[in-house]
Amino acid sequence: MVEAWYMDEAADDPRLPHRAEPARPVGLEQLRRLGVLYWKLDADKYENDPELERIRKERNYSWMDIITICKDKLPNYEEKIKMFFEEHLHLDEEIRYILDGSGYFDVRDREDQWIRISMEKGDMITLPAGIYHRFTLDEKNYVKAMRLFVGDPVWMPYNRPSDHLEARTRYLEFLARTA
Which residues bind Ni(2+) (predicted)? Predict the structure, then answer.
């Protein structure tokens, strides 16, 4: 099952867990109230998984590819890692399914505090359009993930501040309704 927690304020290596002291764990219900959805799937059968197909059909995830993030596989690795860790939002959902390896998604809560979500093999997450977030590898420096989209992929991140965007406005309205 996914593990999530509030982060400390340390500015050292982002690949470290950065757990707040005292520990402040975050459960799936709290993530759902932020619009973050989570599934645990069998990554060994992703090519023929009826549960993945059901989710894709229900949520209209029509496009997918697979990305491997490690020094040997990702062109411009250092530049991409820095870009992924820059706080940003998207105009569409961000959907990631971890097929191998591990990493962290960090999302902002209602009070603008960071929550770290530890992702490993079999974890699938959907971040809502308009949520500020970032991604980093953990100390293993490797993840293989399926990227899913509704329609054609849009890779455009909007770095913070982007509060003027309609996706951000809609997300804040969602938070207000679910408070």
Answer: 88, 90, 94, 133
Phi-psi region of 98 (alpha: psi -120 to 50; beta: other; left: phi over 0): beta
Is the CB of residue 123 less than 8 Å from the CB of residue 2? yes
Q: Residues 40, 1: contact at Cβ < 8 Å?
A: yes
Residue 88 annotated as binding?
yes
Helix (H) or strand (E) holding 97: strand 94-108
Going by C-alpha positions, the residue among 169, 146, 144 that lies closest to residue 158 is 169
Report whether 90 belongs to an annotated binding site.
yes
Report pLDDT digits (tens) over 113-168.
Answer: 999 999 999 999 999 999 999 999 999 999 999 999 999 998 899 999 999 999 99
C-alpha 75/C-alpha 67 separation (Å) is: 11
DSSP-derived 3-state class of residue 157 = coil
